[in-house]
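agent> Task received from the user: take the single chain below, predict its 3D structure, and emit C-alpha cells. No templates, no multimer pairing.
agent> Plan: (1) validate residues, (2) run structure prediction, (3) serialize to C-alpha cells, (4) report one or two observations.
agent> Step 1 OK, no nonstandard residues flagged.
tool_call: predict_structure(input=
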Amino acid sequence: MNIRRATLNDVDTIVKIHCDAFKGFFLTSLGSQFLKFYYSCFIKSSETVTMVAEEDGVIYGFSASTKACKGFNNRLIKSNLFAFAILSLKMLFTTPKSLLRLVKNLTKKGDSVDDEEDYAELYSIAVSKATQGKGVGKLLLAESERIMKSEGVQRVSLTTDFYNNEKTVGFYNSMGYETFYEFVTYPNRKMYRLIKTL
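)
tool_result: status=success, residues=198
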C-alpha cells in the first residue's frame, strides 16, 4: 500500500470514501458539492497534510490534517472567501439550519477547559469498507504524523463522538492518543478531544 500526498485529481474518490464512511454525519449531509470544495481547500493549503492510501492506482483511504489548529478554519475561509460566500448563500436559502450549525462548529473545544489549541489537528480519516481492519487507517495516520513531526509539529489532536464509539476510540488509543477533555458541540453532541505527543 502506497501512502502519498493527495492531489486535486483524488478529490472525487476522497468524497466517495467520506460519504460511505460517514453516513448520517453533519458534513456528509451538506452534500458532495460542498465536500469536493472542502477537501480541495485542504489539498491546496500549505497548512495541511492530506494523504491517500493507494494500491495499483486505486485509492482505499484518505486523511486530512492541519499543522496548526488555532484559527485554521478562519484562515481557510479567508483564503477561499469568494467560493465560501457563494456556498454560504446557497445554504442560507436552501438549508439555513445547516449554515448555522457549520458556523457554530468552526471551533470545536470545551468552554470550561483551558485549551490554547497549540497542536495540529486530524480533521478526517476514512478507509473504504473493502479494506477496513487491514491496517490502512494506521498507515495513513502514521505517515501523516511522520510528516507533521518532520515539519516541527509536537502534538496532534482530534475530536470524535463520545457515545457508541468504542471501536473508533480504541483505534486512536492504540495509536497513542489519550483523552484531553470532553465537550459538547452545537446543537447537543458530546465529543472527546484526544491528543498525542509526537
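agent> Step 4: summary for the user.
Strands lie at 2-5, 48-55, 58-66, 120-127, 155-161, 178-185, 189-197.
agent> Done.
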